[in-house]
């Protein structure tokens, strides 16, 4: 971290002692959320999400492949995240960093554990099934990539159409149906700074954070969690964060449903 | 998660596939100071898991530009041996899963190691899963704690880790591999026992709020037993070392 970031972190901490945030948000407020589905026409599904100044783009491609040997009755999904060097002065080119791997795996975990994609419906014939590739591109970094990423990938999936498959050929120009979804998962990521807990950290708050917790939920049960950073959190704090995440799910889900014009 | 088509019965007559109760740990054996070259080490058997943890440092940071004049940095590498799993031959070295586990494990130890005591230096933690049978990240953290203490590195606390999760509607402690593959939720947790701060928390599957609470409670209860074993391993090693030293006089 550069010196200016340390100064900003101290400023964030001081403000928080009075329960105030840099951008005067409430502790449990998200920044403004914009979801733009279908921005990449070539992809079978896509969505760009703005969470404050954090901007991420998710693209979904469907590839005809084979089921995994231990799950012959269903298709597959896989996810990757790219922290593009154009998104922040903090990012560098090179192989995937632990940060980008963690991001992709945590977003993946929420959607997979929530059974969001009906993987069995991706099977088209014995030994033939669609593989869903979701790629998360970070275009501008201002904190909280977990929630922006979960929103973008979920929205991109809600936007995804399955291409025609005929005589062993994929006809990409013809998309025949919406991909079958079973569930909608959203996440809420919290930063613990000192003894305060706040939702949806921006970059400066992220730098000041002692601990981080992502809670992914479908509104009825918790689907995935991931704690990050080296600070500790208490059982009571986890309890409160789960409550908030579940309450926020309703709001996030409706934003995605409105934007993608698809609801479950 | 494996295909549900060939899912075995994980609970029969109120017992688990290996005969354990819902809140019962697998047998755990820990030995400290097992590697000659490492500054600290531990070998741990946890059910069928066999894990070796080695610690080097504090030592000079490499590459040097990563050095922090205010504190030590921790590097952590968790890997599974290609022969460690009952399934196919794996690949040597880190993969995406192990990179993530290495990262969250590193964050656990950044909390408890008193980094400011060792400015400009690095502490390396290596966790090698020689045989894996479910719950290897928790077992790895439990072993690495002992290895760090064995290296004489100052820590605020001796961390333990264990997972809890859900099989059907039952909350169950410490999954083995079969349970891990077919369970409805899995949640590894690492705890600093002094104040019960949660230092690692991962979860996937589905847990209601009440189930989450029950699972965390089960982890905290089991942790008491794990802590006793960790301390005993360190004590034994210390005893052995003092005996050896005494003989030389």
Describe the structure.
The complex is a heterodimer of chains A (264) and B (249). Chain A is of the alpha+beta class and 264 residues long. Chain A is built from five helices and twelve strands. The longest helix of chain A is centred in the last third of the chain and has 26 residues, at 235-260. Chain B has 249 residues and is an alpha+beta fold. In chain B, helix 2 (136-150) packs parallel to helix 4 (209-248). The termini of chain B are far apart. Chain B has four helices and eleven strands, in the order ββββββαβαββαββα. Classes of the chains: A alpha+beta (264), B alpha+beta (249).
Key traits:
heterodimer; A: 264 residues; alpha+beta; Ribosomal Protein S5, domain 2; four-stranded antiparallel beta sheet; 5 helices; B: 249 residues; five-stranded mixed beta sheet; 11 strands; globular
Biggest sheet of chain B, open or closed, and with what strands and sense? 5 strands, mixed
Largest sheet properties of chain A: 6 strands, mixed
CATH architecture of chain B: 2-Layer Sandwich
Query: Measured on Cα atoms, how large is the radius of gyration of chain B?
Result: 19 Å
Instruction: Could you tell me the CATH topology label of chain A.
Output: Ribosomal Protein S5, domain 2
Name the biggest interface. A-B, 39 and 37 residues
Question: How do the strands of the widest beta sheet of chain B line up side by side?
Answer: 3-4-5-7-6
Q: What is the mean predicted local confidence, pLDDT of chain A?
A: 95
CATH superfamily of chain B: GHMP Kinase, N-terminal domain
Mean of all residue-level pLDDT scores of chain B: 93
What is the rounded distance between the termini of chain B?
Answer: 58 Å
Please state the overall shape of chain A, judged from the principal axes of the Cα atoms. Answer: elongated
Approximate helicity band of chain B: 25-40%
Q: What's the CATH first level of chain A?
A: Alpha Beta
Which percent bin holds the helix content of chain A? 25-40%
Note the run of SSEs of chain B as H and E: EEEEEEHEHEEHEEH
> Radius of gyration of chain A from the CA trace?
19 Å
What is the CATH class of chain B? Answer: Alpha Beta
Category by helix and strand content of chain A: alpha+beta
Oligomer: heterodimer
* Helix segment tally of chain B: 4
């Amino acid at each position: 971290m550069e010196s200016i970031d340390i100064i900003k972190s101290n400023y964030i901490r001081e403000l928080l002692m009075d329960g105030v945030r840099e951008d005067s948000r409430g502790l449990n407020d998200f920044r403004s959320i914009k979801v733009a589905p279908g921005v990449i026409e070539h992809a079978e599904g896509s969505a760009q999400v703005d969470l404050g100044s954090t901007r991420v783009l998710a693209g979904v491609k469907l590839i005809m492949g084979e089921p995994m040997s231990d799950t012959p009755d269903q298709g597959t999904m896989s996810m990757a995240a790219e922290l593009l060097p154009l998104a922040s002065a903090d990012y560098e080119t090179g192989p995937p960093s632990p940060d980008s791997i963690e991001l992709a795996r945590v977003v993946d975990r929420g959607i997979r554990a929530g059974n969001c994609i009906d993987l069995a419906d991706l099977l088209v014939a014995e030994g033939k099934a669609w593989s869903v590739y979701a790629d998360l591109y970070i275009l501008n970094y201002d904190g909280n990539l977990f929630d922006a990423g979960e929103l973008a990938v979920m929205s991109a999936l809600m936007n995804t159409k399955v291409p025609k498959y005929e005589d062993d050929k994929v006809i990409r120009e013809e998309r025949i149906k919406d991909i079958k979804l079973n569930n909608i998962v959203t996440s809420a990521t919290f930063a613990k700074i000192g003894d305060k807990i706040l939702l949806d950290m921006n970059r400066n708050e992220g730098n000041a954070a002692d601990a981080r917790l992502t809670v992914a939920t479908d509104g009825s049960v918790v689907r995935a969690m991931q704690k990050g950073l080296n600070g500790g959190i208490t059982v009571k704090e986890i309890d409160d964060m789960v409550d908030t995440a579940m309450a926020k799910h309703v709001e996030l889900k409706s934003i995605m449903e409105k934007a993608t014009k698809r609801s479950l | 998660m494996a295909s549900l088509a060939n899912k075995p019965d994980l609970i029969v007559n109120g017992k688990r596939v290996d005969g354990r109760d819902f809140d019962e740990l697998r047998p755990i054996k820990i030995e400290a100071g097992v590697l000659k070259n490492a500054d600290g080490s531990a070998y741990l058997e946890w059910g069928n898991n066999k894990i070796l943890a080695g610690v080097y440092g504090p030592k000079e940071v490499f590459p040097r530009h990563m050095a922090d004049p205010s504190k030590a940095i921790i590097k952590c590498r968790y890997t599974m041996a290609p022969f460690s799993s009952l399934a196919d031959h794996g690949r040597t070295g880190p993969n995406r899963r192990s990179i993530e586990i290495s990262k969250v494990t590193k964050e656990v130890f950044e909390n408890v190691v008193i980094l400011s005591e060792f400015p400009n230096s690095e502490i390396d933690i290596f966790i090698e899963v020689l045989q894996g049978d479910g719950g290897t990240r928790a077992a790895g953290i439990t072993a690495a704690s002992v290895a760090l203490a064995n290296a004489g590195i100052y820590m605020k606390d001796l961390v333990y880790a264990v997972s809890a999760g859900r099989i059907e509607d039952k909350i169950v402690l410490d999954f083995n591999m079969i349970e891990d593959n077919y369970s409805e939720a899995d949640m590894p947790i690492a705890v600093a026992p002094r104040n019960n701060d949660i230092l690692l928390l991962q979860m996937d599957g589905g847990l209601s709020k009440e189930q989450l609470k029950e699972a965390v409670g089960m982890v905290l209860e089991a942790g008491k037993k794990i802590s006793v074993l960790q301390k005993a391993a360190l004590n034994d090693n210390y005893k052995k070392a003092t005996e050896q030293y005494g003989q030389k006089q």
